[in-house]
Amino acid sequence: MSSQTATVGGGVVSAGVSGNCLSRAIKNTADKSLHFFVGLAVLFALWGIGIYFVALNPSTSQFVDFGPIPALKSLPEMWENGIIPKALSSTGYRLGAGLGLAIAIGIPLGILMGRIRWFQRLTNVPFQFLRMISPLSWEPIAVVVFAGWEQAIIFLIAIASVWPVAFATASGLAKVDPAWFKVARNLGAKPWQMVTRIIMPAITFDILTGIRLALGVAWIVIIPAEFLGVTSGFGFAIEDAREGLEYSHLMGLVLVIGVVGFVLDSICVLLIKRFSWHRG
Predict the structure, then answer these.
(1) Are 44 and 98 members of one domain?
(2) If you ran DSSP here, which 8-state letter would residue 195 be given?
(3) What's the domain range around 28?
(4) Helices (H), the chain
(5) Are 106 and 28 in the same domain?
(6) Tens place of pLDDT for every residue, the chain, 280 residues?
(7) Same domain for 181 and 254?
């Protein structure tokens, strides 16, 4: 009888704890949503107030279409006309190709920097020097070296985003306990097993953090890189709207760029949280 009571009591306690956890999760989600929407409302309010004062000045009243309402109204039109889908496709391809190339180069480079001391000492100064060069400074060289603007833009994205990935990978590997490698060697682990069973699981969090930083840099670089030489992408669409004096379209495109960048960054944050178990 007492055993049954304990079981029932335990069930009641368990249900109470689960209920508290659920209510706490709902409250946290509600708080985050409230902060998100309030922050967004403040941003749009400041934007609208700024445009209101611009409209009051006769010399700048023609720029009233830069306001939030005209920008939001332009979005369905640009979607139906194919401007936004085409820009998403073209810019997304270039971003994926450039960032993929940076990841493919940056991770092995970071592993070498983190594992081989003489390689790290030899390359630290040259890599830091290259990292500090503005990615857009490579634009004239890229145009000369590569056959077309498409390849040149992908190169600019890769050269901009390879360094966050490489240095984050090296930094993560430097924090791995050396005893892990000794134990693995004693157990007869081969080099490729060291990489797949020890290094990659241990530094996944750091790699994803580096990719998040690289994505931010790449997203900033790709828009101005598309201003010249190509006939597609968000950069081209913004330049085309500017030349056509379609200011509502221009600001609508800026909004889309911000939203897409925010979504991409949020995906990276979710992945980082997913692989942050070993930090806890």
Answers:
(1) no
(2) I
(3) 1-64
(4) 2-56, 68-80, 83-115, 117-131, 139-145, 149-174, 178-186, 191-193, 200-225, 234-243, 247-274
(5) no
(6) 444 444 444 555 455 555 666 677 677 777 777 888 888 889 889 988 888 888 887 777 777 888 889 999 999 999 999 999 999 999 999 999 999 999 999 999 999 998 888 999 999 999 999 999 998 899 889 988 988 889 999 999 999 999 999 999 999 888 887 787 788 788 787 878 888 888 888 888 999 999 999 999 999 999 999 987 788 899 999 999 998 888 899 999 999 999 999 999 999 999 888 876 555 4
(7) yes
